[in-house]
Specification:
By secondary structure, this protein is mainly beta. The protein is 0% helix and 49% strand. The strands form 3 sheets. Strands 1, 2, 3, 9, 11, 12 and 13 form a 7-stranded antiparallel β-sheet that branches. A 5-stranded antiparallel β-sheet has the order 4-7-8-14-10, with no helix packed on it. The protein has 2 domains: 2-45 and 87-199, Immunoglobulin-like (Sandwich), CATH 2.60.40; 52-84, no CATH class. β11 and β12 (166-167) form a beta hairpin.
């Protein structure tokens, strides 16, 4: 069983966007997939906190028509502007409780999601989880977020590994893929979604 996520939105600066960030995040270019014992992160190519400096310059000749040249050479003017890179960094972690179960027993799967950025929100997060063929759906167990604006939309399910999605509750005992959509997740915010499945 694996879980994955899409980050189809972009970032909007928060009130912390003016603070320089010393910590550098490792970045990935695309969504990664997550095993039961692993974690996954999605972020942009340039690490958050990177300081980008842009230099502009101009040159001028001091000679003016009709006036003797008092200064030789060329005068150069330069100005700089800086930009601090701020990217959302969405991370996933997945747990199973219990980790040992008999046929007919129920396992609770929870997927924790977080935005470790100090500066910006992540938008349109889509979390997908595909159950293996030997597990049947029991119920949507619970969900929680520490940001009221980040409450996930009602979950979707699919009987054909994500080809067709339906909002609501699937038939108990059927093998399903699950999908949750989180409209926005602010800087430093996190949450989790859980469902239960039985061993067939």
């Amino acid at each position: 069983m694996y879980a994955g996520l899409d980050l189809t939105g972009w970032a909007r600066p928060s009130a912390h966007a003016q603070r320089a960030r010393s910590r550098r995040s490792l970045s990935l270019a695309a969504a990664a997939f997550l095993s039961l014992l692993g974690a996954s992160r999605v972020s942009a190519m340039t690490a958050e906190g990177t300081l980008i400096t842009n230099l502009a310059s101009a040159t001028a000749n001091p000679t003016t028509a009709g006036i003797p040249q008092l200064v030789t050479g060329v005068i150069t003017y330069g100005v700089t502007a800086t930009v601090v890179v701020a990217n959302p960094t969405v991370m996933l972690n997945k747990t199973a409780t219990p980790t040992i179960q008999a046929t007919g027993g129920v396992v609770t799967f929870c997927i924790t999601f977080s935005n470790s950025s100090d500066y910006v929100s992540a938008f349109n997060i889509v979390i997908r989880d595909i159950a293996p063929n030997n597990m049947g759906f029991v119920d949507w167990w619970t969900q929680w977020v520490d940001d009221p604006s980040a409450i996930p939309n009602p979950p979707d399910y699919s009987y054909n590994a994500g080809t067709l999605w339906t909002t609501g509750t699937p038939i108990v005992g059927r093998t399903v893929a699950a999908r949750w959509s989180v409209p926005v997740l602010g800087p430093g915010r996190s949450g989790y979604v859980c469902y239960r499945a039985s061993v067939l």
